[in-house]
Write a structure and sequence with these properties.
By secondary structure, the chain is an alpha+beta fold. It has five helices and 19 strands. Strands 13-12-16-17-19 form a five-stranded antiparallel β-sheet. It has a four-stranded antiparallel β-sheet with strand order 4-3-6-7, with no helix packed on it. A four-stranded mixed β-sheet has the order 14-15-9-18, with no helix packed on it. Helix 1 packs antiparallel against helix 2 and helix 1 packs parallel to helix 4. The chain starts with about 130 loop residues before the first strand and ends with a helix.
Length: about 375
């Protein structure tokens, strides 16, 4: 290609402007230049130490695929029904009835009577301090002979007590047990300095009955129960009013009962027999206990659980229910319900036991 000619500059070159200020001369250095000091110590060479342990290789990161597929999100169902509009508040058609004014009380308020002061000083509360050498002066007469009688046993606050033994300070309940007479209850007050406390009671005469049997008890599910005597379903004859004698393989039970009762019960475990008593028949046989008491039966089951364990108790209970089904059906409805609840509570309610209990209740 041919060389293109140089294009002329369109703008003229501006002339160089002269410097107004004179150039300042270079100032000389006042301090001489210090020479470089030589290094006293030789430079130590850098030594790279080799690595004793080999470098462990880095395990590569492996991304594991997800085994389970991602469950799709269920779409929200569309509401087809339109939103029901809110009903406007209906205006009240009836005008508001005015409130009747409260009637004025014509009678003045009666003044409260002031508290009357206590004339007697408050007695101090007694502590549990014991008083030694205290005696009870028993004042009791035999109802028939009118002669003074003394109790066979004294029980204070549930414990047998002897004359002269220490008594705690305070109010105490006393039971006096007589031979062939009714027991009597009294309340005494023991204070510091007390030596003798009078106790006046009136024991009642009792009738003596003899009940006979060829054995002294009955064995039920390998548990031996002695005979016990009850004035009623809930009142047992006290132990000191019952005595037993064996005459020629015949057991004789002397039992003291109130002369005015006509019926009583003889228990052996959960079974009992009802006896009619009168002053014309002072001696009779106990007979076969053909009735069942629900409360005593639950106590028998409790004894079995403690003695032989749950599995054996369930087996014994099933046999008991089968053997005495006819007698169990004669129990009161409340006793049947209590028995069912107790069996369920003790977790003895197997299908076989429940079937027998259902038969007892409904058939």
């Amino acid at each position: 290609k041919p060389v293109e000619p140089v294009k002329p500059i369109g703008k003229p070159v501006e002339p160089v402007k002269p410097i107004d200020k004179p150039v300042e001369p270079v100032k000389p250095i006042d301090k001489p230049v210090e020479p470089v000091k030589p290094v006293d110590k030789p430079v130590e060479p850098v030594v790279v130490k080799p690595i004793d342990k080999p470098v462990e290789p880095v395990e590569p990161v492996v991304v594991r695929p997800i085994d389970k597929p991602v469950e799709p999100v269920e779409p929200v169902e569309h509401i087809d029904k339109p939103v029901e509009p809110v009903e406007p508040v209906k205006p009240i058609d009836k005008p508001v009835e005015p409130v009747e004014p409260v009637e004025h009380i014509d009678k003045p308020v009666e003044p409260v009577e002031p508290v009357k002061p206590i004339d007697k000083p408050v007695e101090p509360t007694y502590t549990s301090k014991n008083i030694s050498g205290v005696t009870l002066a028993i004042q009791a007469l035999h109802p028939q002979t009118k002669q003074p009688v003394q109790p066979q046993q004294i029980v204070v606050d549930g414990k047998v007590w002897q004359q002269g033994e220490p008594l705690p300070v305070g109010t105490l309940e006393v039971w006096l047990h007589f031979i062939a007479l009714s027991s009597c209850e009294a309340t005494i007050e023991v204070k510091e300095g007390t030596s003798a406390i009078p106790v006046a009671v009136s024991p009642q005469a009792l009738a003596r009955y003899i009940f006979t049997s060829n054995k002294d008890g009955v064995e039920l599910e390998n548990v031996l129960y002695p005979y016990t005597f009850w004035q009623s379903q809930h009142k047992k004859v006290e132990d000191h009013l019952v005595s037993m004698a064996n005459d020629n393989n015949e057991y004789q039970f002397a039992v003291y009962l109130p002369a005015d009762i006509s019926e009583m019960r003889v228990y052996t475990g959960y079974r009992y027999v009802e006896k009619t008593v009168s002053l014309n028949t002072l001696r009779q046989e106990i007979g076969y206990p053909n009735r069942i008491d629900g409360v005593h039966l639950t106590r028998h089951i409790e004894a079995l659980l403690k003695n032989i364990g749950k599995p054996e108790t369930i087996t014994a209970l099933a046999k008991l229910l089968r053997r005495h089904m006819s007698n169990l059906k004669q129990m009161d409805a409340s006793d049947k319900d209590a028995l069912l609840q107790y069996v369920t509570k003790c977790e003895l309610d197997t299908p076989a036991v429940l079937a027998l209990l259902d038969q007892m209740v409904h058939e």
